[in-house]
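Q: Given only this backbone (301 positions), what sequence would you predict?
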């Protein structure tokens, strides 16, 4: 009997020693997998940012006026393109909600690799992208205004891109959240850096706990599977970008739950270029706490 008790005691002692070790190993595996997931996200983020069509290639944003808008390298154009381009490349015409481009004679502007002389730009399901050497441009609309966004795949911002500093990645930055629907309007009016007011669809706000207090962020439509979040916190303007940060998070499950992973909070395009029209955080999305997860400020551009 005494031997039996000693045996049981020995087994229990062994389990006591082994179990915490196993738990630590399992926890380490979970943390390692999570760190790898965030690192993969960061790699994709940098690849998209530095791609030939990424935000670092923006080299111009021109708002159109009614009638003729001539473009090219000459200073007398309404749209002055940078770099070594012909002085007069053509014109972009706006007639109310109809916008089209007419190329000047012998100027090799292409669309999808094919030369164009005249092409409609408005009323399309996807942007009509025109190109000349390393430049490409397309029509956009903001707040009832039409503009031309210009890219240069050889832009120096892309060529001299530096790494984005970020806070240490840690699972504590990933918090559970529940969706609370307001029962009011399904749109949220958001301002952009041009002080335009733009109504965006919203499904409500995500409520979560941070530092022992309940917080919330109103969500915007981020597509079929995600919410789009724009927020500012106590690091904004000091350690992180002055106009706030962006974040995508999965839509809620059947129980109305999801999570917010602040490790994936990132700088808006305006942190890298003056030619973006970034949305700004609405006042209700100011978190009265320091969220030291995700990307830090990139610095002046």
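A: Predicted residues:
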């Amino acid at each position: 009997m005494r031997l039996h008790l000693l045996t049981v005691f020995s087994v229990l002692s062994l389990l006591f020693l082994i179990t915490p070790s196993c738990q630590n190993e399992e926890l380490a595996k979970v943390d390692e997998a999570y760190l790898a997931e965030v690192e993969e996200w960061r790699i994709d983020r940098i690849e998209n940012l530095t791609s030939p069509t990424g935000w670092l290639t923006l080299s111009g944003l021109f708002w159109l006026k009614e009638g003729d808008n001539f473009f090219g390298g000459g200073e007398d154009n309404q749209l002055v393109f940078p770099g070594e381009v012909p002085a007069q490349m053509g014109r972009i015409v706006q007639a109310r909600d109809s916008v089209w481009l007419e190329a000047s004679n012998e100027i090799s502007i292409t669309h999808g690799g094919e030369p164009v002389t005249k092409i409609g730009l408005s009323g399309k399901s996807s942007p009509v992208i025109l190109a000349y050497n390393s430049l490409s441009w397309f029509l956009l609309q903001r707040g009832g205004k039409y503009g031309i966004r210009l890219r240069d795949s050889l832009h120096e911002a892309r060529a001299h891109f530096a790494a984005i500093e970020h806070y240490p990645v840690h699972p504590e930055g990933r918090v559970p959240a529940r969706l609370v629907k307001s029962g009011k309007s399904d749109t949220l009016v958001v301002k952009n850096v041009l002080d335009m007011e733009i109504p965006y669809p919203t499904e409500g706000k995500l409520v979560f706990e941070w530092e022992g207090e309940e917080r919330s962020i109103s969500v915007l439509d981020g597509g079929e599977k995600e919410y789009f979040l724009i927020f500012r916190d106590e690091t904004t303007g000091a350690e992180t970008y002055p106009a706030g940060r962006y974040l995508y998070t999965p839509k809620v499950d059947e129980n109305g739950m999801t999570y917010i992973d602040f490790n994936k909070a990132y700088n808006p395009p305006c942190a890298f270029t003056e030619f973006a029209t970034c949305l700004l955080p609405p006042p209700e999305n100011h978190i009265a706490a320091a969220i030291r997860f995700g990307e830090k400020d990139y610095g002046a551009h």
